[in-house]
UniProtKB/TrEMBL annotation, chain A:
<keyword id="KW-0812">Transmembrane</keyword>
<feature type="transmembrane region" description="Helical">
    <location>
        <begin position="120"/>
        <end position="142"/>
    </location>
</feature>
<feature type="transmembrane region" description="Helical">
    <location>
        <begin position="219"/>
        <end position="237"/>
    </location>
</feature>
<feature type="transmembrane region" description="Helical">
    <location>
        <begin position="12"/>
        <end position="35"/>
    </location>
</feature>
<keyword id="KW-1133">Transmembrane helix</keyword>
<feature type="transmembrane region" description="Helical">
    <location>
        <begin position="163"/>
        <end position="181"/>
    </location>
</feature>
<feature type="transmembrane region" description="Helical">
    <location>
        <begin position="187"/>
        <end position="207"/>
    </location>
</feature>
<dbReference type="InterPro" id="IPR032479">
    <property type="entry name" value="DUF5058"/>
</dbReference>
<feature type="transmembrane region" description="Helical">
    <location>
        <begin position="56"/>
        <end position="78"/>
    </location>
</feature>
UniProtKB/TrEMBL annotation, chain B:
<keyword id="KW-1133">Transmembrane helix</keyword>
<feature type="transmembrane region" description="Helical">
    <location>
        <begin position="209"/>
        <end position="224"/>
    </location>
</feature>
<keyword id="KW-0472">Membrane</keyword>
<feature type="transmembrane region" description="Helical">
    <location>
        <begin position="81"/>
        <end position="105"/>
    </location>
</feature>
<protein>
    <submittedName>
        <fullName>Small-conductance mechanosensitive channel</fullName>
    </submittedName>
</protein>
<feature type="transmembrane region" description="Helical">
    <location>
        <begin position="31"/>
        <end position="49"/>
    </location>
</feature>
<feature type="transmembrane region" description="Helical">
    <location>
        <begin position="126"/>
        <end position="152"/>
    </location>
</feature>
<feature type="transmembrane region" description="Helical">
    <location>
        <begin position="56"/>
        <end position="75"/>
    </location>
</feature>
<feature type="transmembrane region" description="Helical">
    <location>
        <begin position="164"/>
        <end position="182"/>
    </location>
</feature>
């Protein structure tokens, strides 16, 4: 475990992470400049430009802090730079957690276990990086033609796209059920932690949807993780 | 020059301005994304062959296929589904920034709402771009100190809390499953029943993520259709 974390926090991985962050920052600044220049062409006043920027930045604070709670919980498995570049930026926590678990599973070990070797970490990095690159490849290659594709797809029957969403949701539920069950068979504390996190998520989302509380939706996963751990702690001291 | 001609000229100028905008957006959007793709391939290559931690191609390919089977639809459909809201420049920005549904889309919508720009219009696209661009920078500003502070915090946690860290995975998985269960409670019940029976079954070969996914999808969709018909 110690060796693998030395690799995960090594200088070269940091350099990759910082290069990628640098590119994200560069792109952000470039596009803000492009959009500000084009603003007058679409009838936007300089005041409106500032207002759009300010609103975007403020709206990001809540989600960003919520992302961090999840990111910190993944640092123990992936180390600082990988967590920074995959969960904080580019990816998103649930999908990267899925990819990391699949990678470790394919190498025949579990995330964070004592047998999680540098080779297992490398499998995880391959999975996350190739997966992320595939998604970006689609965007880089097809964004020019999306305008047309969008019209075609929305023009087609609604039942088709409903079916696609249903199959995707069922597939993801199947995957996460597999991982939850893998934890459940480890023992009763694992089981209670999973149930605690799952139930608190369901309750929070119910309340958030009913009363339309946006911040609760943003924080739900982070809070659910903490609630699950708390339930686990109570179970261990009982 | 009549007023009519003047407005024509203005419109022409606006169209030209937007054409140049799109050309630039495609150019810089693609360039930055391709550079990140290259870095994303170089990093695992470095771990495998320079540091010598290559796990063999077998697990890498198996993991990639499993991941792609799950995420393939999202990778191809998400950009198309979000395109009406994000537009060309917003798409390049959001997909490189990540956290699309939980951060980029809300920020884009808030920016559009703040200045009364309709999604799907040119003004809406420019507003979304400004909103996501600002959100992305804000995210990074918040992220870096918290990651450093976070790993420090983890190192000074009291022993009791440290020992709870071993239960982070079930907490994350349980929480995410709960998120999906809200959308499709029936699927979640089916998924858990399927996965638990796989885990507890004596046949080791069944303990495979593909088996869990396939049976969950088939049973969920089959029952859905039956209920719709009835």
């Amino acid at each position: 475990m110690r060796d693998v974390m030395e690799v995960a926090n090594s200088g070269v991985i940091w350099i990759f992470a910082l290069l990628i962050i640098g590119l994200v920052v560069t792109q952000g600044l470039l596009f803000i400049r492009l959009a500000s220049r084009a603003s007058s062409a679409v009838g936007m006043s300089p005041t409106e430009v500032r207002s759009a920027l300010k609103t975007g930045a403020i709206s990001a604070i809540g989600p960003s802090l919520a992302i961090m709670v999840i990111a910190i919980s993944l640092i123990t498995f992936l180390g600082d730079p990988l967590t920074l570049m995959r969960i904080g930026i580019i990816g998103s926590a649930p999908i990267e957690a899925l990819g990391a678990s699949i990678g470790a599973d394919a190498y025949g070990v579990e995330l964070g276990s004592s047998s999680f070797s540098p080779q297992a970490l490398t499998t995880v990095v391959w999975t996350l990086c190739l997966g992320g690159a595939t998604g970006l490849f689609v965007v880089a290659t097809f964004t020019k033609s999306f305008g047309r594709a969008e019209k075609k797809i929305t023009g087609k029957s609604k039942s088709g796209s409903k079916m696609i969403i249903a199959v995707t949701t069922a597939a993801l539920i199947g995957a996460f059920s597999f991982f939850v069950s893998g934890e459940v068979v480890k023992g009763h504390v694992h089981t209670f932690v999973a149930i605690g996190a799952g139930l608190s998520m369901i309750i929070m989302m119910r309340i958030a949807n009913e009363k339309n509380i946006t911040w609760l939706k943003e924080w739900s996963l982070g809070l659910a993780i903490l609630a699950g751990l708390l339930v686990g702690y109570v179970v261990t001291i009982i | 020059m009549t007023i009519n001609e003047e407005t024509n000229l203005k419109e022409k100028k606006a169209v030209q301005g937007m054409d140049a905008y799109y050309d630039q957006a495609h150019l810089w959007g693609r360039l930055t994304i391709w550079m990140v793709i290259i870095l994303s391939v170089l990093l695992p290559l470095y771990l495998s062959f320079i540091l010598g931690f290559h796990p063999g191609w077998g697990p890498i390919i198996a993991a990639y296929i499993a991941y792609a089977a799950l995420m393939g639809l999202a990778w191809t459909m998400e950009p198309i589904l979000y395109f009406p809201t994000l537009g060309v420049s917003g798409t390049y920005l959001a997909f490189l920034t990540g956290n699309i549904s939980n951060m980029c889309l809300p920020s884009a919508a808030a920016a559009q709402h703040a200045i009364g720009a309709e999604p799907g219009t040119k003004k809406g696209e420019v507003a979304a771009t400004l909103g996501i661009g600002a959100a992305s920078l804000m995210n990074i500003v918040i992220l870096i100190p918290i990651i450093f502070g976070g790993s420090y915090l983890l190192s000074v946690l009291p022993e009791e809390a440290q020992s709870m860290l071993q239960y982070i995975l079930p907490a994350i998985f349980g929480g995410i499953l709960g998120q999906f269960a809200i959308k499709k409670p029936r699927y979640a019940v089916i998924g858990l029943a399927v996965a638990l029976s796989i885990m507890l079954s004596p046949i080791g070969a069944l303990k495979n993520i593909f088996v869990a996914i396939l049976i969950t999808v088939l049973v969920s969709i089959y029952l859905d259709k039956k209920i719709i018909k009835a």
